[in-house]
Design a protein that fits this description.
Elements: H1 7-13, H2 18-26, E1 33-34, E2 40-41, H3 44-54, E3 64-65, H4 67-74, H5 78-86, E4 93-94, E5 99-102, H6 103-117, H7 164-188, H8 219-239, E6 245-250, E7 253-262, E8 268-272, E9 288-292, E10 302-306, E11 310-315, E12 323-332
Antiparallel strand pairs: 1-2, 3-5, 4-5, 6-7, 7-12, 8-11, 9-12, 10-11
Helix pairs in contact: 4-5
Amino acid sequence: MDKLYTIQEVATKLNLSDKTLRRWEEAGRFTPSRTLGNQRRYTIEDLQILDAIKHNTISEQKDLLTIEQAGKLCGVSPTTILRWENDGKIHPFITSGNTYYPRQKLMEKMEELKKIYIEPETAPAPNTPGVFIDPAPVGADYHPPAPEKTKLTPLTTRASHVSPLQFNVYLTNTLITLVLILSYHFFFNQPSAPISPQTGLPAQAGSVQGTSTSVTTDPRVDDLITKFQDFVSTQMLKDAKPSPTSTLKLDNASLVSGSSTLPKNKDQVSVTLPAQAGADKITPTTPVTVTFTSDYAPAKKYWVTPGEGSFTVTTDFPVSTDSTFNYSFLAPTSTPSAILR
């Protein structure tokens, strides 16, 4: 069972007065649970919601909607809400036990989501052949067009008869298909080379130049790339001078890495690099990898938004202490050179 806190304990933890908590309750901004003796009790989730109210992340407890309530507000299905979340268009408020969607942020994003997922001015006519219309568009007033009635033509029946020659052809095609499937299976499911514990690379792999441009779904290859990036970033940060940014020049690319800090009680920080450190190579499409090296509670998620010459790290909740993180990205270069610090 989760621990319950008194109003004095909550006030101490959130650096608030108990009068403020009672005033919020009287105003309807937050309603705690009560014991049989009518004493207030607060859960861990209650503390997270109260902290969000304190930092103006939400206005009141009622602003936190479930996925069903969010879908009803936006006039879409819960599946569409999940699709928006996976596309990074909306960001949920995650507590210790539930996932909510702030009402105000959904209202602010409504017009943008309407333009992205459905354009009334450019939407094709309902009867246009060969055009797919989203079955769950934005807007509560949307009514799908009635399907056009089509006159069905009765099918003529004929006796089913397969000649011996046709049967042999079908059997031959089936055997060829089975052979191709088995060949594909044995060819693409060979065990990969073992990982060397000294270098973290495959035992018989060649030297790595830059980064690979091939796309793979093998999780072992993904782990190998991640270990290599972490190894390079760690070595460069360990041997670097007091400057927080290091650049490793590779063939046709530079691996720029460094560290920064998300300040206490903040949920966003922008990192701007000097031109010699590769800032002129950062664009909105540059993939920037960020790894926190310290605890960033009570936040549960974070994401990176690259821009022109800088990038921004955002968490879904303000951090309780200064949280340090490492970052790295690949900047294209014209000629290879040595390590610059």
